[in-house]
Design brief:
21 helices, alpha/beta, 523 residues, disordered C terminus, 3 domains, Rossmann fold, transmembrane, 46% helix
Length: 523
Protein backbone atom coordinates (compact mmCIF):
# COMPACT_ATOMS: atom_id res chain seq x y z
CA UNK A 1 0.00 0.00 0.00
CA UNK A 2 1.38 3.39 -0.96
CA UNK A 3 1.00 5.70 2.03
CA UNK A 4 0.27 9.38 1.44
CA UNK A 5 2.63 11.54 3.41
CA UNK A 6 2.40 15.25 3.83
CA UNK A 7 5.16 17.32 2.27
CA UNK A 8 5.59 20.74 3.84
CA UNK A 9 5.23 23.73 1.54
CA UNK A 10 6.19 27.33 1.56
CA UNK A 11 3.76 29.64 3.33
CA UNK A 12 2.69 31.24 0.05
CA UNK A 13 1.51 28.08 -1.66
CA UNK A 14 -1.88 26.49 -1.41
CA UNK A 15 -2.09 23.27 0.55
CA UNK A 16 -1.38 20.08 -1.35
CA UNK A 17 -1.32 17.11 0.97
CA UNK A 18 -0.34 14.20 -1.23
CA UNK A 19 3.20 12.88 -1.20
CA UNK A 20 3.32 9.22 -2.13
CA UNK A 21 6.17 7.13 -0.79
CA UNK A 22 8.41 5.99 -3.57
CA UNK A 23 9.81 2.51 -3.95
CA UNK A 24 12.07 1.49 -1.12
CA UNK A 25 15.75 1.72 -1.82
CA UNK A 26 15.94 -1.88 -0.69
CA UNK A 27 14.34 -2.99 -3.95
CA UNK A 28 17.74 -3.09 -5.53
CA UNK A 29 18.45 -6.78 -5.20
CA UNK A 30 22.18 -6.91 -5.76
CA UNK A 31 23.62 -6.83 -2.28
CA UNK A 32 26.40 -4.29 -2.13
CA UNK A 33 28.64 -3.71 0.83
CA UNK A 34 28.38 0.05 1.10
CA UNK A 35 31.10 2.09 2.68
CA UNK A 36 29.53 4.20 5.37
CA UNK A 37 30.68 5.76 8.56
CA UNK A 38 32.87 3.53 10.65
CA UNK A 39 30.86 1.56 13.13
CA UNK A 40 33.40 2.50 15.69
CA UNK A 41 32.87 6.23 15.29
CA UNK A 42 31.30 8.00 18.21
CA UNK A 43 27.54 7.66 18.18
CA UNK A 44 25.07 9.88 20.07
CA UNK A 45 23.76 7.85 22.97
CA UNK A 46 19.98 8.35 23.00
CA UNK A 47 18.01 7.58 26.16
CA UNK A 48 14.76 7.40 24.18
CA UNK A 49 13.82 6.47 20.65
CA UNK A 50 10.84 8.83 20.53
CA UNK A 51 9.63 11.93 22.38
CA UNK A 52 5.91 12.64 22.01
CA UNK A 53 4.83 16.30 22.01
CA UNK A 54 1.04 16.74 22.17
CA UNK A 55 -1.83 18.65 23.80
CA UNK A 56 -3.06 16.34 26.53
CA UNK A 57 -6.67 17.47 26.63
CA UNK A 58 -7.01 16.90 22.87
CA UNK A 59 -5.31 13.57 22.21
CA UNK A 60 -3.94 11.88 25.36
CA UNK A 61 -6.91 9.53 25.62
CA UNK A 62 -7.37 8.89 21.90
CA UNK A 63 -4.88 9.29 19.05
CA UNK A 64 -1.71 9.95 21.06
CA UNK A 65 -2.62 7.28 23.61
CA UNK A 66 -3.12 4.72 20.84
CA UNK A 67 0.11 5.77 19.11
CA UNK A 68 2.05 5.47 22.37
CA UNK A 69 0.65 1.99 23.02
CA UNK A 70 1.58 0.84 19.53
CA UNK A 71 5.12 2.25 19.81
CA UNK A 72 5.62 0.31 23.03
CA UNK A 73 4.26 -2.87 21.43
CA UNK A 74 6.90 -2.77 18.71
CA UNK A 75 9.68 -2.15 21.19
CA UNK A 76 10.24 1.57 20.60
CA UNK A 77 11.41 3.29 23.79
CA UNK A 78 9.06 6.29 23.98
CA UNK A 79 8.92 9.24 26.37
CA UNK A 80 5.43 10.51 27.09
CA UNK A 81 5.23 13.33 29.60
CA UNK A 82 3.19 13.50 32.76
CA UNK A 83 0.90 16.44 33.47
CA UNK A 84 2.76 16.90 36.76
CA UNK A 85 5.82 17.98 34.78
CA UNK A 86 3.89 20.92 33.35
CA UNK A 87 3.70 23.60 36.00
CA UNK A 88 4.12 27.31 35.47
CA UNK A 89 4.64 28.97 32.11
CA UNK A 90 7.86 27.22 31.01
CA UNK A 91 8.71 23.58 30.40
CA UNK A 92 10.60 21.74 33.12
CA UNK A 93 14.27 20.80 33.01
CA UNK A 94 13.25 17.13 32.95
CA UNK A 95 11.19 17.67 29.80
CA UNK A 96 14.03 19.56 28.12
CA UNK A 97 16.44 16.74 28.98
CA UNK A 98 14.02 14.15 27.62
CA UNK A 99 13.79 16.05 24.32
CA UNK A 100 17.59 16.29 24.06
CA UNK A 101 17.96 12.58 24.80
CA UNK A 102 15.46 11.41 22.15
CA UNK A 103 16.41 10.25 18.67
CA UNK A 104 13.04 11.25 17.16
CA UNK A 105 10.42 13.80 18.18
CA UNK A 106 6.83 13.26 17.06
CA UNK A 107 4.67 16.39 17.26
CA UNK A 108 0.91 15.83 17.32
CA UNK A 109 -0.64 19.13 16.23
CA UNK A 110 -4.25 19.30 17.40
CA UNK A 111 -6.80 22.13 17.64
CA UNK A 112 -5.68 23.51 20.99
CA UNK A 113 -1.96 22.72 20.65
CA UNK A 114 -1.03 26.39 20.17
CA UNK A 115 -3.07 27.49 23.18
CA UNK A 116 -0.48 25.84 25.43
CA UNK A 117 2.76 27.73 26.07
CA UNK A 118 4.28 24.44 27.26
CA UNK A 119 3.58 22.78 23.90
CA UNK A 120 5.01 25.75 22.02
CA UNK A 121 8.14 25.83 24.18
CA UNK A 122 8.55 22.09 23.58
CA UNK A 123 8.28 22.71 19.85
CA UNK A 124 10.99 25.40 19.95
CA UNK A 125 13.27 23.06 21.92
CA UNK A 126 12.59 20.18 19.52
CA UNK A 127 13.57 22.25 16.49
CA UNK A 128 16.72 23.44 18.26
CA UNK A 129 17.68 19.78 18.79
CA UNK A 130 16.89 19.06 15.15
CA UNK A 131 19.39 21.72 14.12
CA UNK A 132 22.07 21.08 16.73
CA UNK A 133 21.81 17.32 17.35
CA UNK A 134 20.47 16.24 13.94
CA UNK A 135 17.39 14.67 15.47
CA UNK A 136 14.49 13.54 13.30
CA UNK A 137 11.23 15.48 13.64
CA UNK A 138 7.94 13.99 12.43
CA UNK A 139 4.82 16.21 12.53
CA UNK A 140 1.28 14.81 12.63
CA UNK A 141 -1.70 17.04 11.87
CA UNK A 142 -4.58 15.57 13.85
CA UNK A 143 -7.90 17.04 12.73
CA UNK A 144 -6.25 20.34 11.85
CA UNK A 145 -5.45 21.95 8.52
CA UNK A 146 -1.64 21.98 8.04
CA UNK A 147 -1.90 25.44 6.47
CA UNK A 148 -3.45 26.76 9.70
CA UNK A 149 -0.37 25.55 11.57
CA UNK A 150 1.96 26.99 8.95
CA UNK A 151 0.33 30.42 8.77
CA UNK A 152 -1.15 30.54 12.29
CA UNK A 153 -4.69 30.94 11.03
CA UNK A 154 -7.95 29.24 12.04
CA UNK A 155 -7.75 27.72 15.54
CA UNK A 156 -4.03 28.50 15.65
CA UNK A 157 -4.69 32.15 14.86
CA UNK A 158 -7.26 32.36 17.67
CA UNK A 159 -4.77 30.76 20.05
CA UNK A 160 -2.22 33.49 19.37
CA UNK A 161 -4.78 36.19 20.11
CA UNK A 162 -5.26 34.59 23.52
CA UNK A 163 -1.52 34.22 24.05
CA UNK A 164 -1.01 37.91 23.33
CA UNK A 165 -3.41 38.75 26.13
CA UNK A 166 -1.27 36.73 28.57
CA UNK A 167 1.62 39.20 28.32
CA UNK A 168 4.21 36.92 26.77
CA UNK A 169 7.13 38.83 25.27
CA UNK A 170 7.10 39.61 21.57
CA UNK A 171 10.39 37.73 21.16
CA UNK A 172 8.94 34.57 22.66
CA UNK A 173 5.80 34.78 20.54
CA UNK A 174 7.85 35.24 17.38
CA UNK A 175 9.89 32.14 18.25
CA UNK A 176 6.66 30.19 18.56
CA UNK A 177 5.35 31.45 15.21
CA UNK A 178 8.63 30.64 13.45
CA UNK A 179 8.68 27.18 15.01
CA UNK A 180 5.14 26.39 13.86
CA UNK A 181 5.94 27.50 10.32
CA UNK A 182 9.14 25.45 10.23
CA UNK A 183 7.49 22.32 11.63
CA UNK A 184 4.56 22.57 9.22
CA UNK A 185 7.00 22.59 6.31
CA UNK A 186 8.41 19.20 7.31
CA UNK A 187 7.16 15.95 5.81
CA UNK A 188 4.56 14.33 8.04
CA UNK A 189 1.02 13.00 8.20
CA UNK A 190 -2.37 14.67 7.82
CA UNK A 191 -4.76 12.33 9.65
CA UNK A 192 -7.64 13.25 7.32
CA UNK A 193 -5.72 12.30 4.20
CA UNK A 194 -3.89 9.13 5.23
CA UNK A 195 -5.69 5.91 4.32
CA UNK A 196 -9.03 7.68 3.98
CA UNK A 197 -8.89 9.05 7.50
CA UNK A 198 -8.59 5.65 9.21
CA UNK A 199 -6.76 6.33 12.46
CA UNK A 200 -5.32 2.83 12.87
CA UNK A 201 -3.84 2.87 9.37
CA UNK A 202 -2.36 6.29 9.97
CA UNK A 203 -0.72 5.00 13.15
CA UNK A 204 0.70 1.98 11.31
CA UNK A 205 2.20 4.30 8.70
CA UNK A 206 3.87 6.31 11.46
CA UNK A 207 5.15 3.13 13.13
CA UNK A 208 6.70 1.99 9.86
CA UNK A 209 8.56 5.28 9.46
CA UNK A 210 9.75 5.31 13.08
CA UNK A 211 11.08 1.77 12.81
CA UNK A 212 13.02 2.69 9.69
CA UNK A 213 14.63 5.56 11.59
CA UNK A 214 15.33 3.58 14.76
CA UNK A 215 16.80 0.63 12.91
CA UNK A 216 19.52 2.78 11.35
CA UNK A 217 21.69 2.43 14.46
CA UNK A 218 24.79 0.33 13.72
CA UNK A 219 26.05 -2.31 16.12
CA UNK A 220 29.10 -1.57 18.23
CA UNK A 221 31.91 -3.51 16.58
CA UNK A 222 35.38 -2.83 17.94
CA UNK A 223 37.38 0.06 19.35
CA UNK A 224 40.24 -0.74 16.96
CA UNK A 225 38.97 -2.70 13.91
CA UNK A 226 42.40 -3.95 12.85
CA UNK A 227 42.32 -6.42 9.96
CA UNK A 228 38.57 -6.18 9.43
CA UNK A 229 38.57 -4.63 5.96
CA UNK A 230 40.34 -7.51 4.22
CA UNK A 231 38.04 -10.05 5.86
CA UNK A 232 34.95 -8.06 4.90
CA UNK A 233 36.18 -8.09 1.30
CA UNK A 234 36.15 -11.90 1.36
CA UNK A 235 32.53 -11.89 2.54
CA UNK A 236 31.71 -9.35 -0.17
CA UNK A 237 33.03 -11.73 -2.81
CA UNK A 238 30.82 -14.51 -1.48
CA UNK A 239 27.76 -12.27 -1.63
CA UNK A 240 28.37 -11.14 -5.19
CA UNK A 241 27.88 -14.62 -6.61
CA UNK A 242 24.52 -16.21 -7.26
CA UNK A 243 21.09 -15.02 -8.38
CA UNK A 244 19.98 -11.63 -7.11
CA UNK A 245 16.55 -12.90 -5.99
CA UNK A 246 17.66 -16.01 -4.13
CA UNK A 247 17.87 -16.39 -0.37
CA UNK A 248 21.54 -16.47 0.56
CA UNK A 249 23.13 -18.22 3.51
CA UNK A 250 26.73 -17.57 4.52
CA UNK A 251 28.57 -19.42 7.27
CA UNK A 252 31.51 -17.87 9.11
CA UNK A 253 33.50 -20.42 11.10
CA UNK A 254 36.68 -20.60 13.17
CA UNK A 255 37.95 -21.12 16.68
CA UNK A 256 36.69 -19.15 19.65
CA UNK A 257 38.18 -15.71 20.05
CA UNK A 258 39.25 -15.40 16.42
CA UNK A 259 36.81 -12.60 15.57
CA UNK A 260 33.80 -14.27 13.94
CA UNK A 261 31.27 -12.17 15.84
CA UNK A 262 33.19 -8.95 15.19
CA UNK A 263 33.30 -9.73 11.47
CA UNK A 264 29.59 -10.58 11.39
CA UNK A 265 28.74 -7.29 13.14
CA UNK A 266 30.82 -5.30 10.67
CA UNK A 267 29.09 -6.97 7.71
CA UNK A 268 25.69 -6.45 9.37
CA UNK A 269 26.36 -2.72 9.78
CA UNK A 270 27.15 -2.33 6.09
CA UNK A 271 24.10 -4.23 4.90
CA UNK A 272 21.13 -3.81 7.22
CA UNK A 273 19.71 -0.70 5.56
CA UNK A 274 19.21 -2.67 2.35
CA UNK A 275 16.62 -4.98 3.95
CA UNK A 276 13.01 -4.66 5.05
CA UNK A 277 14.00 -5.78 8.53
CA UNK A 278 17.10 -7.07 10.28
CA UNK A 279 18.10 -8.95 13.40
CA UNK A 280 21.41 -9.85 15.08
CA UNK A 281 20.92 -12.75 17.52
CA UNK A 282 24.11 -12.94 19.58
CA UNK A 283 25.53 -15.85 21.56
CA UNK A 284 22.80 -18.28 20.51
CA UNK A 285 24.40 -21.37 22.05
CA UNK A 286 24.46 -19.82 25.52
CA UNK A 287 21.01 -18.24 25.10
CA UNK A 288 19.48 -21.60 24.17
CA UNK A 289 21.15 -23.28 27.13
CA UNK A 290 19.90 -20.57 29.47
CA UNK A 291 16.43 -19.80 28.09
CA UNK A 292 15.56 -22.60 25.65
CA UNK A 293 14.98 -22.62 21.90
CA UNK A 294 11.44 -21.28 22.16
CA UNK A 295 12.60 -18.01 23.75
CA UNK A 296 15.26 -17.57 21.07
CA UNK A 297 12.63 -18.11 18.36
CA UNK A 298 10.46 -15.51 20.10
CA UNK A 299 13.32 -13.03 20.15
CA UNK A 300 13.92 -13.52 16.42
CA UNK A 301 10.26 -12.90 15.63
CA UNK A 302 10.02 -9.90 17.96
CA UNK A 303 13.05 -8.21 16.41
CA UNK A 304 12.06 -8.86 12.81
CA UNK A 305 8.34 -8.12 13.14
CA UNK A 306 8.74 -5.35 15.74
CA UNK A 307 5.89 -6.82 17.73
CA UNK A 308 6.10 -7.84 21.37
CA UNK A 309 2.49 -8.90 21.85
CA UNK A 310 2.70 -12.64 21.10
CA UNK A 311 4.34 -15.72 22.56
CA UNK A 312 5.63 -18.95 21.04
CA UNK A 313 4.24 -22.09 22.67
CA UNK A 314 6.65 -24.69 21.32
CA UNK A 315 9.60 -25.13 18.95
CA UNK A 316 7.27 -26.53 16.28
CA UNK A 317 4.97 -23.53 16.64
CA UNK A 318 7.99 -21.23 16.42
CA UNK A 319 9.07 -22.86 13.16
CA UNK A 320 5.59 -22.39 11.70
CA UNK A 321 5.49 -18.74 12.78
CA UNK A 322 8.90 -18.03 11.24
CA UNK A 323 7.81 -19.57 7.95
CA UNK A 324 4.43 -17.81 7.94
CA UNK A 325 5.56 -14.34 9.08
CA UNK A 326 8.95 -14.03 7.38
CA UNK A 327 8.25 -15.79 4.09
CA UNK A 328 7.37 -12.55 2.31
CA UNK A 329 9.99 -10.31 3.95
CA UNK A 330 13.45 -9.47 2.68
CA UNK A 331 15.38 -9.89 5.91
CA UNK A 332 18.95 -9.85 7.16
CA UNK A 333 19.45 -12.25 10.07
CA UNK A 334 22.71 -13.04 11.86
CA UNK A 335 22.71 -16.20 13.99
CA UNK A 336 25.81 -15.75 16.11
CA UNK A 337 27.73 -18.55 17.86
CA UNK A 338 25.51 -21.46 16.88
CA UNK A 339 26.81 -24.65 18.50
CA UNK A 340 24.20 -27.31 17.72
CA UNK A 341 22.31 -28.49 14.66
CA UNK A 342 18.96 -28.18 16.46
CA UNK A 343 19.46 -24.42 16.74
CA UNK A 344 19.83 -24.02 12.98
CA UNK A 345 16.90 -26.32 12.29
CA UNK A 346 14.66 -24.31 14.61
CA UNK A 347 15.68 -20.86 13.37
CA UNK A 348 16.70 -21.13 9.71
CA UNK A 349 16.50 -24.69 8.41
CA UNK A 350 15.16 -23.84 4.96
CA UNK A 351 15.80 -20.91 2.64
CA UNK A 352 12.13 -20.98 1.70
CA UNK A 353 11.27 -19.69 5.16
CA UNK A 354 12.43 -16.21 4.14
CA UNK A 355 11.49 -13.72 1.45
CA UNK A 356 13.28 -13.17 -1.84
CA UNK A 357 16.66 -11.48 -1.46
CA UNK A 358 17.07 -12.36 2.22
CA UNK A 359 20.49 -13.04 3.73
CA UNK A 360 21.16 -15.35 6.68
CA UNK A 361 24.64 -15.21 8.24
CA UNK A 362 25.71 -17.95 10.66
CA UNK A 363 28.79 -17.89 12.90
CA UNK A 364 30.00 -21.06 14.56
CA UNK A 365 33.09 -22.85 15.82
CA UNK A 366 31.86 -26.10 14.30
CA UNK A 367 32.41 -26.28 10.55
CA UNK A 368 30.28 -29.43 10.34
CA UNK A 369 27.17 -27.40 11.13
CA UNK A 370 27.68 -25.64 7.80
CA UNK A 371 27.85 -28.83 5.74
CA UNK A 372 24.57 -27.93 4.03
CA UNK A 373 26.09 -24.78 2.54
CA UNK A 374 28.03 -24.63 -0.70
CA UNK A 375 31.77 -24.05 -0.81
CA UNK A 376 31.17 -20.45 -1.90
CA UNK A 377 28.92 -19.89 1.13
CA UNK A 378 31.47 -20.72 3.83
CA UNK A 379 34.23 -18.48 5.11
CA UNK A 380 36.99 -19.62 7.48
CA UNK A 381 38.08 -16.78 9.74
CA UNK A 382 41.86 -16.61 9.79
CA UNK A 383 44.08 -15.58 12.67
CA UNK A 384 45.67 -12.16 12.44
CA UNK A 385 49.01 -11.95 10.69
CA UNK A 386 52.01 -10.62 12.61
CA UNK A 387 51.56 -6.96 11.65
CA UNK A 388 47.83 -7.02 12.40
CA UNK A 389 48.41 -8.74 15.73
CA UNK A 390 51.07 -6.20 16.69
CA UNK A 391 48.79 -3.30 15.79
CA UNK A 392 45.77 -4.65 17.66
CA UNK A 393 47.79 -5.42 20.78
CA UNK A 394 49.61 -2.08 20.67
CA UNK A 395 46.41 -0.08 20.25
CA UNK A 396 44.91 -1.67 23.36
CA UNK A 397 48.09 -1.61 25.43
CA UNK A 398 49.62 1.70 24.33
CA UNK A 399 47.02 3.53 22.17
CA UNK A 400 49.53 3.53 19.32
CA UNK A 401 49.81 1.23 16.28
CA UNK A 402 53.31 0.02 17.23
CA UNK A 403 55.17 -0.20 20.55
CA UNK A 404 58.30 1.81 21.44
CA UNK A 405 61.63 0.14 20.72
CA UNK A 406 62.21 -1.06 24.30
CA UNK A 407 58.79 -2.75 24.37
CA UNK A 408 59.06 -4.55 21.04
CA UNK A 409 60.58 -7.83 22.23
CA UNK A 410 58.11 -8.13 25.10
CA UNK A 411 55.22 -7.38 22.74
CA UNK A 412 56.47 -10.07 20.36
CA UNK A 413 56.52 -12.64 23.18
CA UNK A 414 52.98 -11.77 24.20
CA UNK A 415 51.74 -11.85 20.61
CA UNK A 416 53.30 -15.27 20.09
CA UNK A 417 51.57 -16.53 23.20
CA UNK A 418 48.23 -15.20 21.94
CA UNK A 419 48.43 -17.25 18.74
CA UNK A 420 47.17 -14.29 16.72
CA UNK A 421 43.73 -14.47 18.33
CA UNK A 422 42.03 -11.07 18.64
CA UNK A 423 40.29 -11.95 21.92
CA UNK A 424 43.60 -12.81 23.58
CA UNK A 425 45.34 -9.74 22.16
CA UNK A 426 42.59 -7.37 23.28
CA UNK A 427 42.46 -8.84 26.80
CA UNK A 428 46.23 -8.92 27.26
CA UNK A 429 46.66 -5.45 25.79
CA UNK A 430 43.96 -3.96 27.99
CA UNK A 431 45.51 -5.59 31.07
CA UNK A 432 48.93 -4.07 30.33
CA UNK A 433 47.64 -0.60 29.51
CA UNK A 434 49.43 2.01 31.62
CA UNK A 435 51.83 -0.55 33.14
CA UNK A 436 55.60 -0.09 33.46
CA UNK A 437 58.08 -2.09 31.40
CA UNK A 438 58.94 -4.11 34.53
CA UNK A 439 55.30 -5.12 34.84
CA UNK A 440 55.23 -6.02 31.17
CA UNK A 441 58.28 -8.20 31.67
CA UNK A 442 56.71 -9.91 34.66
CA UNK A 443 53.49 -10.64 32.77
CA UNK A 444 55.43 -11.93 29.77
CA UNK A 445 57.34 -14.30 32.04
CA UNK A 446 54.09 -15.54 33.54
CA UNK A 447 52.68 -16.17 30.10
CA UNK A 448 55.76 -18.12 29.03
CA UNK A 449 55.59 -20.15 32.20
CA UNK A 450 59.20 -19.19 32.94
CA UNK A 451 58.60 -18.81 36.66
CA UNK A 452 58.03 -22.00 38.61
CA UNK A 453 55.01 -20.73 40.49
CA UNK A 454 53.61 -18.53 37.76
CA UNK A 455 49.87 -18.95 37.37
CA UNK A 456 48.11 -17.29 34.43
CA UNK A 457 45.95 -14.31 35.28
CA UNK A 458 42.23 -15.05 35.53
CA UNK A 459 41.60 -13.16 32.30
CA UNK A 460 44.02 -15.48 30.54
CA UNK A 461 42.30 -18.51 32.06
CA UNK A 462 39.05 -17.31 30.54
CA UNK A 463 40.73 -16.86 27.18
CA UNK A 464 42.22 -20.35 27.30
CA UNK A 465 38.84 -21.80 28.18
CA UNK A 466 37.18 -19.83 25.38
CA UNK A 467 39.68 -20.77 22.69
CA UNK A 468 40.02 -24.36 23.85
CA UNK A 469 43.71 -24.07 24.83
CA UNK A 470 44.46 -24.07 21.13
CA UNK A 471 47.99 -22.73 21.14
CA UNK A 472 49.33 -25.13 23.78
CA UNK A 473 47.22 -28.10 22.74
CA UNK A 474 48.34 -27.86 19.14
CA UNK A 475 51.96 -28.29 20.12
CA UNK A 476 51.57 -30.77 22.98
CA UNK A 477 49.10 -33.18 21.43
CA UNK A 478 50.84 -33.23 18.08
CA UNK A 479 54.00 -34.33 19.91
CA UNK A 480 52.07 -36.92 21.90
CA UNK A 481 50.50 -38.41 18.77
CA UNK A 482 53.68 -38.35 16.74
CA UNK A 483 56.28 -39.42 19.30
CA UNK A 484 54.38 -40.71 22.30
CA UNK A 485 56.08 -38.23 24.61
CA UNK A 486 54.16 -39.36 27.67
CA UNK A 487 56.18 -37.40 30.18
CA UNK A 488 55.40 -34.20 28.27
CA UNK A 489 51.72 -34.91 28.60
CA UNK A 490 52.10 -35.41 32.35
CA UNK A 491 53.97 -32.13 32.66
CA UNK A 492 51.31 -30.34 30.64
CA UNK A 493 48.54 -31.98 32.69
CA UNK A 494 50.20 -30.82 35.90
CA UNK A 495 50.52 -27.24 34.61
CA UNK A 496 46.94 -26.94 33.45
CA UNK A 497 45.54 -28.60 36.58
CA UNK A 498 47.31 -26.10 38.81
CA UNK A 499 46.57 -23.02 36.75
CA UNK A 500 42.99 -23.81 35.76
CA UNK A 501 41.33 -25.53 38.73
CA UNK A 502 37.86 -24.97 37.34
CA UNK A 503 38.45 -27.46 34.50
CA UNK A 504 37.75 -31.14 35.12
CA UNK A 505 39.88 -33.50 33.06
CA UNK A 506 38.70 -37.02 32.21
CA UNK A 507 40.34 -40.05 33.78
CA UNK A 508 40.29 -42.00 30.55
CA UNK A 509 42.36 -41.34 27.47
CA UNK A 510 39.41 -40.11 25.43
CA UNK A 511 39.67 -36.54 24.16
CA UNK A 512 37.45 -34.06 26.04
CA UNK A 513 34.53 -33.01 23.87
CA UNK A 514 35.34 -29.32 24.16
CA UNK A 515 38.95 -29.72 22.98
CA UNK A 516 39.40 -29.31 19.28
CA UNK A 517 42.47 -29.52 17.12
CA UNK A 518 42.50 -26.31 15.17
CA UNK A 519 44.59 -24.38 12.71
CA UNK A 520 46.99 -21.89 14.31
CA UNK A 521 50.08 -19.96 13.30
CA UNK A 522 52.15 -23.09 13.90
CA UNK A 523 50.78 -24.61 10.67
Amino acid sequence: MNTPLLRGESSTSSMNIQLVEGESSTSSMNIQLVEGESSTSSQTQWSYDVFLSFRGEDTRNNFTGHLYTRLCQVGVNTFIDDEELRKGDVISTKLEKAIEDSRISIIVFSKSYASSSWCLDELVKILECKEQLKQTVLPIFYDVDPSHVRKQTGEFGKAFVTLKERSFTDERVEKWRAALTEAANLSGWDSQNVAGGHESKCIESIIKQVLQEVNQTPLDVASYPVGLDSRIEHIELLLQSGCEDEVRMVGIYGVGGIGKTTLAKAVFNRLFQQFDSSCFLSDIGSKVEELGLVKVQEKLLHQILKRMDFEVGSVAEGVNLIKARLGSKKVLIVLDDVDHKSQLESLARERSWFGSGSLIIITTRNKQLLSGLGANERYETKILNYNEAMQLFSWHALQTPFPPHDYVNLAQDIIEYSGGLPLALVTLGSRLQGRSIEEWRYEANKLRGAQERAIPHRDIQKILQTIGLIVILKVVFSLIMMFGVYFLFLKFFSFVSSSMPSMDFPQRQSQPSNWRFVRTHYN
